[in-house]
Write a structure and sequence with these properties.
Blueprint (H helix, E strand, L loop, with lengths): L11 H22 L7 H31 L4 H30 L8 H70 L4 H18 L10 E2 H19 L5 E6 L6 E2 L3 H12 L8 E8 L2 E9 L11 H15 L3 E8 L2 E9 L5
Parallel strand pairs: 2-4
Antiparallel strand pairs: 1-3, 4-5, 5-7, 6-7
Helix pairs in contact: 2-3, 2-4, 3-4, 4-5, 5-6, 6-7, 7-8
Length: 350
């Protein structure tokens, strides 16, 4: 658990209310036993300063000390040193109040018995340290219960979203299956493309390999790149718009799913595809180095959708997550063509 919340867990006004009531109670209790605690202005101010600089300080200093110990986890030496600083500062503030503030405000000029006073204050320190510790642990317990409740709510919400995400794809797949069955009577070619689209959607929504990991074999990516190409060729009634080449054993390469498919789809969507200027993709794997090279002519039509940055940004983010400094991903424009270059230095996979 990262510590970003304020240590003061309860609302600030509750703290103010507590300390005001506690101050009044302590002052009246002391006034009954000690005639110095009358209700004169000097006596009230003297005790108020003592109360704030010593008693309240001990309480919150203890809370912050325990907070530091729990979340920053300093060494034993630093922890003990901080505790000593807390104790010495507490005694120092008490002596300052007794030796300077009280003589000034209530004319308490009696000599200080340092041994007796420090011994008395050690017990006071333990008392307020215990109060601060009790507050800290109770507030931590309350926060854990609230966090646990929030996590349970988030779990329920995630499960509900997961159920919806499972229902929606199944509805889509059933619809595609129905369209396939209806279209095969009229056009086997159209039915084939609907089946390929169904395979692509199943690959995107129900990836079987995610049960054991977060990567897919490159051969699966290539299979569905070919499906995407086939659908676009059918749409354009032209089977000469794409040159696709592979080299190497792609069953030995595992990549984040849909990275290559997205790159290929980006080329098909934004490229000017024709028999005269076909798009090309060259994929290779050799000596632990995987390479994807894409080239397509840039569309110049005014109605061309330029919104391709989201897919590229998503790919960059995922590659950086998995490969960090072990990949290069570049894209550029030159002479009317768009170039995509992805190189991944993969470790030897067994």
């Amino acid at each position: 658990m990262s510590k970003k919340e304020p240590v003061l867990f309860l609302k600030t006004r509750l703290h103010y209310t507590f300390w005001i009531v506690f101050f009044i109670y302590n002052y009246i209790s002391n006034a009954v036993l000690d005639p110095r605690f009358n209700f004169s202005f000097g006596a009230v101010i003297s005790y108020l300063l003592f109360f704030l600089t010593v008693l309240v300080y001990n309480f919150y200093a203890t809370v912050y000390y325990l907070d530091l110990i729990k979340y920053k986890k300093p060494s034993i030496f630093k922890s003990i040193s901080l505790l000593i600083v807390l104790l010495v500062s507490s005694i120092g503030l008490a002596l300052l109040n007794r030796g300077f503030i009280q003589p000034l405000l209530i004319h308490n000029d009696n000599p200080i018995n340092y041994y007796k006073y420090i011994t008395f204050w050690l017990f006071q320190f333990i008392y307020y340290f215990s109060l601060g510790a009790a507050y800290f642990f109770v507030s931590e317990l309350m926060k854990e219960k609230i966090n646990s409740s929030n996590l349970e709510k988030e779990k329920i919400e995630v499960e509900a979203n997961l159920l919806r995400s499972q229902i929606n794809p199944h509805f889509l797949f059933n619809t595609l299956n129905m369209l396939y069955a209806k279209s095969i009577v009229y056009s086997e070619d159209l039915a084939d493309k609907i089946q390929k689209l169904s395979e692509i959607m199943r690959y995107a929504y129900l990836p079987k390999w995610l049960e054991n990991g977060s990567h897919a074999p490159a051969s699966e990516e290539i299979k569905h790149i070919l499906n995407v190409i086939s659908i676009h060729e059918f749409r354009l009634s032209n089977e000469n718009i794409f040159h696709f080449n592979t080299k190497g054993d792609m069953d030995q390469v595992f990549l984040p799913p849909l990275v290559l498919v997205t790159l290929a789809e980006n080329i098909l969507k934004h490229g000017h595809l024709s028999s005269d200027s076909p798009a090309t993709i060259d994929i290779s794997y050799e000596d632990g180095i995987f390479s994807f090279l894409g080239k397509n002519k840039i569309k110049t039509a005014k109605n061309h959708d330029e919104k391709s940055g989201i897919g590229i940004a998503n790919i960059s983010s995922r590659l950086n997550k998995y490969y960090k400094d072990s990949y290069e991903f570049h894209y550029s424009q030159a002479n009317g063509y768009f170039y995509t270059n992805l190189t991944i230095h993969l470790k030897k996979q067994i």
